[in-house]
Amino acid sequence: MGPRYAVYFAPAVDSPWWRFGAGWLGWDDARGQALAQPRLPEFSAEDFHALTSEPRRYGFHATLKAPFRPRPEVDEATLRDRLAMLAARLRALAVGPLVPAHLDGFVALMPLERQPAIDALATRCVLDLDDLRAPLTPEEIARREAAGLDARQRELLARYGYPHVLAYFRFHLTLSGPVDPVTADLLVHRAGDPVDALNAEHPLRLDRLCLFREDHPGAPFLRVHEQALSA
After folding, report:
1. Do 57 and 221 meet the contact criterion of CB atoms below 8 Å apart?
2. Residues with Cβ within 8 Å of residue 66, at least 6 apart in sequence
3. Each residue of 138-178: pLDDT tens digit?
4. Is the entire prediction scored with pTM above 0.90?
5. How far apart (Å, rounded) are the C-alpha atoms in residues 81 and 133?
6. Domain spans of the chain?
7. Are 134 and 148 in contact, with CB atoms under 8 Å apart?
8. Which residue, 26, 112, 137, 189, shows the most beta carbons closer than 10 Å to its own?
């Protein structure tokens, strides 16, 4: 199989938000390099590395269009061109304060309240770029369905290749893989102070669309292109 691509929001490289998130996960998705992670007193370095292994492969990001294989006739240049066309029609948005929270068994940064403008932007990414996506394979469908989907999510999976879209979309930036409630509470606590400081000093804006690429199954995702949204 060829590479997969995804459309994410990720903070500008070397911005304060990016330094926090990339450092937390231990992965520089723009340069393809491992980074030193913070030392948390509740966890050994090895344990914290393991807790963040799943999101580390994807980089510090919020999903707007989930990973997909492009159709055979669609190359990366086409994806970049379409991303530029879409970004030109979308306006940058204030995200508002983020908080670390439990979400479906993992820890993520989320807005205090759902924001319809962000939900609408994500929907545009899903709908406007879906003609570039190759259909899911039977194996990919079975893997998604094995996670447990309701009837509407199965419809969305069949139509858009991903179940957590439209009304099921939740803007979030993942900080851990699956964790038990006690571990989740510890991670939420440790992330709280630096995130509060970032909210106060550097309010986050959703100001770009980023194209990420997975070169082969299981490879880390790399940030290969980004396009600024309208001011």
Report:
1. yes
2. 6, 161, 162, 164, 165
3. 988 998 887 789 999 999 999 999 999 999 999 999 999 99
4. yes
5. 15
6. 4-228
7. no
8. 26
Structure tokens that stand for 88 in this block: 């030109």
Q: Are 134 and 160 in contact (CB under 8 A)?
A: no
φ/ψ (deg, to 5) at 174: -80, 140
Q: What percent of the chain has pLDDT over 70?
A: 100
Architecture per CATH, domain 4-228, reads as: Alpha-Beta Complex (3.90)
Exposed/middle/buried for residue 53 (C-beta within 10 Å: 0-12, 13-18, 19+): middle
CB 145 within 8 A of CB 157: yes
- pLDDT at residue 231, as a whole number: 64
Q: What's CA 45's distance to the chain center, in Å?
A: 24
Distance between CA 93 and CA 57 in Å, rounded?
27
pLDDT band at 194 (very low <50, low <70, confident <90, very high): very high
Look-up of token digits 């500008």: 12
Write phi, then psi, for 143 (nearest 5 degrees).
-65, -40
